[in-house]
Amino acid sequence: MTQASQTPALPQFAQLTIQGEDAEKFLQGQLTCDVTKLGLSYQAAAIGNLKGRIEFGIWIKKQAEKHFDVVISADCADALKAHLNKYGAFSKFDTSAPTAIYPCVLADEPTFSHKDDHNTFEDTQAWMECSIATGNYWIVAATQSEFQPQELRLHQRGGMDYDKGCYLGQEVIARIYFKSAPKAFLHYVQGSGEVPAAGDKLDKIQVVNAMEKENGFIALVVARPEQLAESALTILDLPAALQIDVARPK
């Protein structure tokens, strides 16, 4: 196997614009976050399935009144557009075709840009490294329906609202939050050897995202703490807000 085949492809992203009279109301019934509180900065969020797992991991911002921009992994963009058209068939809004948008780091934060000068290998690498270090996971086609939002600490990043009312998967997600807690959840780790692909399992530890780094790799993984303790992976520190217990505060 060549090194090129061992290294996962660089992530690519697409933006869809959703605008119209019913855009906000429709999205409020789909997304895990409170759409009424969105602003001009990208907010990580998700659209779940009926089992309470993330079908589409997205970033969303309110560009203008009744106008929302959604960024998603490019290999999920057509499926998201089909989903929006299906569930929004009787709502008044239009969804654009997916267009390319580029990952980059601005002011030490992972974000996205339409500028062609950010369409570089270096920008994407910097975005990946910053995203993995800060828990800014990205869902790709291989990991759709794999993770529950709390497992990925989405609620600790402002991407979930437990008081806004119903949305897809809300009953399951709320039940986990109020009555139990995920036993496996997001960690930032370093390992040796080949770079695993998104969705791969290292024994019982599931990879969310990974990239090559210093004769090995860094990754975001979902695992039980005891599984990590028994592995050869080194646990690194996520930001302080993502180091607290994933369970609901008592």
From TrEMBL:
Signal peptide: none
Domain of life where this protein originates: Bacteria
PANTHER family on file: TRANSFERASE CAF17, MITOCHONDRIAL-RELATED
Organism of provenance: Psychrobacter namhaensis
Name used for this protein in its record: YgfZ/GcvT domain-containing protein
